[in-house]
């Protein structure tokens, strides 16, 4: 399969061109061993061995080398990966190097990568010992993500899949998922790396979990720190400008920062921000910008929740073609379409709606025109 065909196959699976290429660029910029640890439990190997093989082969062809850990109880099913013992790779052969001795994890991984193969470990352990091994592996390799594959494809609460689970959340999972969730939470805390995350998904959804902002399973992470800043001169305008222009892929007009903002909600590492202005009708959300990759970390949701706590009466506008407009439609109390714009509002008085729409219609643009 040629490189272009591989990329097309990735886009076919993820259904999102822009996101997929951004994530691919990010993953390729990492040292190979840091990309991800993928653990497949016995249920996954028994039910979805073919899907797992297909996706791992696709990652390998994209020059990405996840460290794979396979459950010993399902290892008989992985014979699918190793049917062809000749040196030539076949469609039923995983380009991996198998390890059963875990004495030197970093050395084993390095030897596989030197041969341009996926490091594949067979886990003898169960329960706490398994998670101790996954913790050690993730820590030693400085992995950015552990992906736990199981047939359910995520953690559920009251029958609904949880897309993001904060490590300090009080949300109670369904009884069938509690043991797995609590073990993953303990693993997350023991790795002690602010950039580390855990995703629980299915083998068939592995690529969607990796290459799309929305993901496919349950992401376990620490809630982002969102600061409320009243003095706009206390933030880096250069960093703010870069963030906004990257998010909108358009340049800010000269004089943008001459405006007076009532407050700025800012992620501590400039991954996202919201700029709010006070008007006679309530508070106007001037800009809501999140770095593209950070959207998959729940940064936008954390900023939005903090903003709603502070500004329960809010209105704003977005271009019709803006991908976030669909989400705005779900969270707003009301909306109105006007030309290239959609006007949104939350908590406003009914008698102010037309005045707000007039205000938004005549508001000058802060960003350069779309060419």
From TrEMBL:
Domain N-acetyltransferase: 224-369
InterPro entries in alphabetical order: AceGlu_kinase-like_sf (IPR036393), ArgB_GNAT (IPR011242), Vertebrate-like_GNAT_dom (IPR006855)
Molecular function GO terms recorded: acetylglutamate kinase activity
Pathway: Amino-acid biosynthesis; L-arginine biosynthesis; N(2)-acetyl-L-ornithine from L-glutamate: step 2/4
GO CC, any one term: cytoplasm
Alphabetical UniProt keywords: Kinase, Transferase
GO terms for biological process, alphabetical: L-arginine biosynthetic process
PROSITE patterns linked to this entry: GNAT_NAGS (PS51731)
Protein name: Acetylglutamate kinase
Organism of derivation: Leptospira gomenensis
